[in-house]
Design a protein that fits this description.
Protein name: SAM-dependent methyltransferase
Radius of gyration: 21 Å
Domain C-methyltransferase: 252-409
Pfam family, one: Methyltransf_13
CATH topology of the domain at 315-413: Rossmann fold
Distance between the termini: 44 Å
Shape: globular
Structural class: alpha/beta
Organism: Paramagnetospirillum marisnigri
Helix content: 25-40%
CATH class of the domain at 315-413: Alpha Beta
Strand content: 15-25%
Number of helices: 14
GO molecular function: methyltransferase activity
């Protein structure tokens, strides 16, 4: 074990020690650990990427925990660079305002608020807002543009400070962050202490149903400690003095779950979405370790196809580039053995990543101008959840004879 990493021995949701290994992925560096040219000679530390199943509550999780400071203090992902996510968050804020009718002008807190994109829509709707995010540069930028953001990690102590200075929150949100936290129990204790009596906690996470059904294995990386399903969450919230009132499917990240919880005995009735989700999970066998082991075999079959295709194209002298440098590309490229021998460079629209090199593999990340300059024959869409907008935006590449490869959920050449 390194100073930056430890392995826990209990289930993050129920505390059980009955944990079975189900998927073993190739160890990788942290998925967002892009490096400048000056640091290419420095060996990047790789951490285990093994997935475990809790035999008691059926929660699926990583037990290897990388120090969150290593992962998040100099984060390079910002929601505002993706028009798809900006629209998603606008609809999300509208949904919460219409469905739960929070007290006008009341406090909305976003845990893992990133650049404040979601909070900006609550602010426009007349709510007071507060972001919480550990990424120093991103938190400072969000504050400067009018979304007050506390730089730090959320927990019971910070929740107590906020309740004392700002009062209780009508809405607390946590998007693509409720899977990132080792001490989930402490975070939910903080939420419970900070939520107004009629308030709601709304979170979005990648949904295990979609991950297993569509082989979305590349959403497994060190930031994502949990692969949530509804059945274990119902039990977890009940044990924490809260109740899950909705479990809604949304299409972001290839398939996500929007969970909504309130204080136990709160004003909102439990919707039928919760029972429907639990029944679907049981039908798919997500409460059995063997289902996850079958998923592991599906991953290997997909890898054989993609790797074979890329090696054939290289043998024909074709030039291959990647499009998109999301965190999940690190898992996909390491597990499938796709390095600089197969992919020459990667295009990404985020200025924060351009000019850097990918974690461990050290493939250069360039702006989209490189497509016209370097003329690749194929673009592997590593940000596959945005495949359609990427293809539409790069029509000139296709008209010039270029082809796209979509690696997930199945290997397709477009």
């Amino acid at each position: 074990m390194s100073a930056n990493h430890h392995r826990r021995d209990t289930c993050r949701l129920c505390g059980s020690t009955a944990l079975s290994p189900v998927v073993a992925l190739v160890p990788t560096p942290p998925a967002n650990a892009f490096v400048p040219a000056a640091e290419l000679a420095v060996e990047q530390e790789r951490f285990p990427l093994d997935v475990f199943f809790c035999e008691d509550c059926a929660h699926v999780q990583l037990l290897d925990v990388v120090d969150p400071k290593v992962l998040f203090e100099h984060y390079v992902y910002v929601s505002g660079t993706s028009p798809v996510f900006v629209k998603h968050f606008e609809r999300y804020a509208d949904f919460v305002m219409e469905r739960f009718k929070p007290v006008p002008g009341g406090l909305v807190i976003d845990i893992g608020s990133n650049d404040g994109t979601l909070l900006s829509f609550f602010q426009k709707a007349g709510m007071a807002v507060l972001g919480i995010d550990p990424a120093q540069e991103i938190a400072a930028t969000a504050t400067a543009k009018g979304i007050p953001t506390h730089c730090g990690f959320f927990g019971p102590d910070l929740a107590g400070e906020i309740a004392a200075t700002r009062g209780k929150a009508e809405v607390i949100t946590a998007n693509n962050v409720f899977a990132h936290i080792d001490n989930l129990s402490g975070v939910v204790d903080g939420v419970r202490g900070l939520l107004a009596p009629g308030g709601v906690f709304v979170f979005e996470v990648s949904y295990l149903v979609d991950v297993v059904r569509d082989t979305l294995f590349d959403t497994i990386y060190h930031e994502h400690l949990d692969y949530h399903s509804v059945k274990p969450l119902v039990r977890f919230f009940a044990a924490k003095g809260m109740e899950l009132v909705e479990a809604i499917r949304v299409d972001s990240h290839g398939g996500s779950l929007r969970g909504i919880a309130q204080l136990k005995g709160g004003p909102h009735t439990v919707g039928e979405s919760v029972a429907i989700a639990v029944a679907e999970e049981e039908r798919l066998g997500l409460d059995k370790a063997e289902t996850l082991r079958a998923f592991s075999r599906d991953i290997d079959a997909l890898g054989g196809q993609l790797n074979g295709l890329l090696r054939d194209l290289k043998a024909q002298g074709k030039r291959i580039a990647g499009f998109g440098a999301p965190a999940k590309a690190t898992t996909l490229m390491y597990h499938f053995g796709i390095g600089p021998d197969l992919v020459d460079f990667i295009i990404d629209d985020s200025p924060l990543k351009q000019g850097l090199f990918t974690p461990g593999m050290h493939i250069p990340v360039l702006s989209s101008a490189a497509i016209a300059e370097k003329k690749p024959d194929y673009l592997v869409i590593l940000a596959w959840n945005f495949a359609r907008p990427i293809i539409d935006k790069n029509a000139a590449f296709a008209q010039a004879g270029g082809k796209f490869i979509i690696p997930i959920p199945k290997v397709e050449v477009v």
